[in-house]
């Protein structure tokens, strides 16, 4: 009986194996089977929307709008030749005389980018691109090269305005709105990296409102992963419609090349600085003449403060607006003109935004008591380190 069972089991196994092979290789031998409806990839994916026959994944339209307004900036300056190490040796001067001091001067060159912001030829760029240059040449998108003059500079925001004169009206970029920019939005960086020529790179807005980076006095950067390299400085950061949203200013890099962390000055700040420079030749900011430091947890505890809010007045300049108003070292500033102050940078920006000559309310904590003082705002000196 056991032997018959083994023969039966082996026969069933062989039959199933044969049936599997036949149904796989010759399904028509098995007979009719219900056919499952085929599903194609095109049916499972939504149709790609197009704009003017072009997929929206392409940003050629945005680049075409912005490219004519982005220029290359070439600078040069005269630098003194390095003094000969034996120039002061009496023996060498006896034989060579003044020839050691009469060597030809050398010229250092630099490059960067800029953005045409008006048909009259005003160009917005970074201050560090044109700083100390005695010759500036601007190369337009169509290949023309024009000399430029400096209208004004603002080192504290690292912005500068140039002007060029062309025989025709120049193509100016369209300004976007910073408040409509969000983290995750697509942006394009346009400039002249490493001098290779006009280049467009794409990325997204990685963060907004970046500050405390130690790059500029006034910081409110847009962070992006769009590739920004040396030579891109002063170039345009535009949105997916080609509108200007920032001026490329700096990168975080250990090698000198892009690591996906770039910073651009938002168009709101750039436009405000640009308009003041064009109208007045410089930027006017408020100032009261104090030195400040952050309120740490240890300082808050030593002052008996309920929290670490505010900023500590560590010094007051004699005869300054703060001194005349009665602000003292050791006071903790809590608010400026109704705007809360949480750190020294916030205080700097709040005071700088006030017009010189007006009186503003300052809320302070002194000896565990809150007081309010009226301070007449002064004009911030150039490159002032105090507030």
UniProtKB/TrEMBL annotation:
Pfam families: PDZ_2, Trypsin_2. Substrate binds at residues 128, 158, 231-233. The keyword Lipoprotein does not apply. The active site is at 128 (charge relay system), 158 (charge relay system), 233 (charge relay system). GO terms for molecular function: serine-type endopeptidase activity. Residues 266-354 form the PDZ domain. Keywords: Hydrolase, Protease, Repeat, Serine protease, Signal. It comes from the Bacteria. GO terms for biological process: proteolysis. InterPro entries: Chloro_Bact_Ser_Proteases, PDZ, PDZ_sf, Pept_S1C_Do, Peptidase_S1_PA, Peptidase_S1C. NCBIfam families: degP_htrA_DO. Belongs to the peptidase S1C family. This is Do family serine endopeptidase. It comes from Zoogloea dura.
């Amino acid at each position: 009986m056991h032997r018959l069972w083994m023969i039966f089991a082996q026969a069933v196994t062989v039959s199933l194996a044969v049936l599997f092979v036949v149904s796989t290789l010759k399904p028509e031998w098995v007979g009719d089977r219900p056919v499952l409806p085929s599903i194609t990839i095109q049916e499972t994916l939504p149709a790609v929307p197009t704009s003017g026959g072009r997929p929206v994944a392409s940003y050629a339209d945005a680049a075409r709008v912005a490219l004519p307004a982005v220029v290359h900036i070439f600078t040069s300056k005269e630098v003194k030749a390095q003094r000969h190490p034996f120039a002061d040796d009496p023996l060498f001067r006896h034989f060579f005389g003044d020839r050691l001091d009469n060597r030809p001067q050398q010229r250092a060159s630099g490059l960067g980018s800029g953005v045409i912001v008006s048909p009259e030829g005003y160009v917005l760029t970074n201050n560090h691109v044109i700083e100390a240059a005695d010759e500036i040449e601007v190369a337009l998108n169509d290949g023309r090269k024009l000399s430029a003059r400096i209208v004004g500079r603002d080192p504290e925001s690292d912005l500068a305005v140039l002007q060029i004169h062309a025989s025709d009206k120049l193509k100016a970029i369209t300004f976007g709105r910073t408040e409509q920019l969000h983290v995750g939005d697509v942006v394009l960086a346009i400039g002249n990296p490493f001098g290779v020529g006009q280049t467009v790179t794409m990325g997204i807005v990685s963060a907004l409102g970046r500050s405390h980076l130690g790059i500029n006095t006034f910081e409110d950067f847009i962070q992006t992963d769009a590739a920004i390299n040396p030579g891109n400085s002063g170039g345009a950061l535009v949105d997916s419609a080609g509108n200007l949203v920032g001026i490329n200013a700096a990168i975080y890099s250990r090698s000198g090349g892009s690591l996906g962390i770039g910073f651009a000055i938002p168009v709101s700040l750039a436009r405000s600085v640009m308009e003041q420079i064009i109208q007045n030749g410089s930027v006017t900011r408020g100032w009261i003449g104090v030195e400040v430091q952050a309120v740490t947890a240890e300082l808050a505890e030593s002052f008996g403060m309920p929290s670490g809010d505010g900023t500590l007045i560590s010094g007051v300049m004699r005869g300054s607006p703060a001194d005349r108003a009665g602000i003292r070292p050791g006071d903790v500033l809590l608010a400026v003109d109704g705007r809360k102050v949480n750190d020294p940078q916030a205080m700097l920006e709040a005071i700088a935004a006030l017009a010189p000559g007006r009186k503003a309310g300052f809320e302070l904590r002194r000896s565990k008591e809150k007081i309010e003082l009226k301070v007449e705002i002064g004009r911030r000196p150039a490159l002032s380190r105090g507030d």
